[in-house]
Amino acid sequence: MKLTNFFLFSLLFCGTLFSQEKEVKHFFLEGDYFYGSIIEHNTALSHLIIGHPEGFTLSYNRKTFGLKEWERQYNSPDWGFTFIYQDMKNQILGENYSLYGHLNFYFFKRNLMFTAGQGLGYNTNPYDPDANFENNAYGSTLLSTTLLRANYSRENIWKGLGIHAGLIFIHYSNANVKAPNTSTNTLGLNAGLSYQLEHENLPDYSSERDGLNYSEKIKYNFVFRFGINESDLVGTGQFPFYVFSAFADKRLNYKSTIQFGTELFLSIFLKEFIEFRSISFPEDGLTGNEDYKRIGVFVGHELRINKFAFPTQIGYYVYWPYEFEDRVYLRLGIKRYFYKEKIFAVITLKSHWAKAEGVDFGIGIRL
Length: 367
Hints:
Blueprint lengths: L13 H5 L8 E12 L15 E9 L6 H5 L4 E10 L7 E13 L4 E12 L18 E17 L2 E13 L10 E13 L22 E11 L9 E13 L4 E12 H13 L13 E12 L2 E12 L8 E11 L4 E10 L2 E12 L1
Antiparallel strand pairs: 1-2, 1-8, 2-3, 3-4, 4-5, 5-6, 6-7, 7-8, 9-10, 9-16, 10-11, 11-12, 12-13, 13-14, 14-15, 15-16
């Protein structure tokens, strides 16, 4: 589903975050094979599900050992980069090549590893009105992609070699930047090997917290967002959109910040869509001059990891003159703080439940 476009470009920022300060540099390599099925989340995809996709993953992982507070707060996760090749087992869908930034989180004495990654993908055979009109899953060559993986992992069993196996989920979508965009979700089984370099000299993990109080007074935020998107009608064109947001937030502790705010949406594609409907479907009773602007209120949460945050928000249109999609909307994304956490850049995906409307890029101030 399109909602799982977990923060376009998101974890690709992680390399910048985690390489800014001196640290013990230990890393390990992983190689996996996976085999699975495309989940039919939309009946419009049924004609494309004819085989079982398979492929391989290659990962570079930098280990952390709790030398910084953010590492101790999250049980010393890994960060790194993953390359995936996936054969969709259907000539219409083609093949996908993708690159992710990712984080590995550990549970149950580091035997369970959960990976979350976000990146960009390249599809070899996207929709074409003449040559490939049946591919309603991928409207463009360039795609956003999400990787989720849960593995039982045993590291450094013998001379740095380790094994792991579990479940893998891969999502491809262009987040409605261009139609069509039904997207695909692959759920599969994966298994592979890892190799820990310098396995004989690994330091111990540190878990002692600094004991500081990270709660803050209420802060006020102002954000300008922008992007381009297209309606679901193929060939209607891509148009810019703009969002002006204002909200208050309250940091509760190291990991959590809560939010409440309002925002104005100016989506040019919706203006064009209303005009198209008024001409093509006169039975709808539209004049073509209906107001395309929308105003929403929202509540949200930010998960903080060092200078980064992962916002999740749910909103409701209090001004909704043209009934497009649903009155409730969702937003997921990634945020990077700068200059004493007073300035931030943000990338988010907005959707109506599982249906994406667009990816926006924003800059804001926190006072």
